[in-house]
Amino acid sequence: MSRTSALLMAVLTLIATVLFLTTTPASAAATRIMPLGDSITGSPGCWRALLWNRLQSTGYTNIDFVGTLPPQGCSVSYDGDNEGHGGFLATNVANQNQLPGWLAATRPDIVVMHFGTNDVWSNIAPATILSAFTTLVNQMRASNPAMKILVAKIIPMNPANCADCGQRAVTFNNAIPAWAAATTTQQSPIVVVDQWTGFSTSADTYDGVHPNASGDQKMSDRWYPALVNFLTPGGSTPTPTPTPTVTPAGGCTATFKNVGQWTGGFQGEVTVKNTSAATTNAWTVGWTFANGQQITQIWGGTLTANGAAVSVRNLSWNGTLATGATTTFGFLGSWNGTNTAPVPTCSPA
User: Which range is the signal sequence, renumbered to this chain (predicted)?
Assistant: First the structure.
């Protein structure tokens, strides 16, 4: 081959390489998800394995679970990186400024946080724990101003050495929604995921605190729709907005809020309050959907549906309400086109 031909061939090869590199579309970066918490998340925290594999099997494959800790078993293949630090308190992590280093090492886009169990066990006041949560959220947003954050109402507690922990967990969980509503932003939304309702310490843990196989499954099932909301293009996470409360003559009220909405689905929560002067032992909430919405999963109540008409009755453990006391139930629903908020009514029954 002549020197001229060799030079021409080299030039053509260079041009072809440049064209390939400049015209081949770059694949989208994987969404980086940090599971954050204590031993319920990391030791071994097999709800993460169930969640990872469900996401993979339903088409959410361009994701990367991140953390400075490696997986700890679970007997299935999954992306096990996490920040589930056994024995850690959220208040200590905030006070000792530990999270910024983990964030810098992993650069998450989404944080999935089940934290506060050890703080509750240590009898730290809910306001102090939530102040620590605010510190952690501010650190997350310093790392990524568009950070999306899922925060759990923690699973129930009944450890052998802490008779008061069960009620402490309830008190802490009851304070989380108001904190989240005050802290969420359009750019960096916070969505509360109810891991407490429907979770049994006797059936779903092996020691009154840590989930067993059925508990892991329940936790994965609760995380999944909220996380899919963040992963789905066009998904939205509006700031929870209560609808008007209707007060019937019977003496209880029901208030609906849209916790999160995404294409074709949404999560709702209804707060029931006893407004009478006497303790009520049962309640029923009803409404009629305006746009053909349907409830696909419910927790904290027994559902009866007839077309657009919905009725939800209390369970055995949340029917008795003292004067001024409240309880909540939640549900997942489907919608198409328009998702008008329902206006529920409540009656003691």
Answer: 1-28
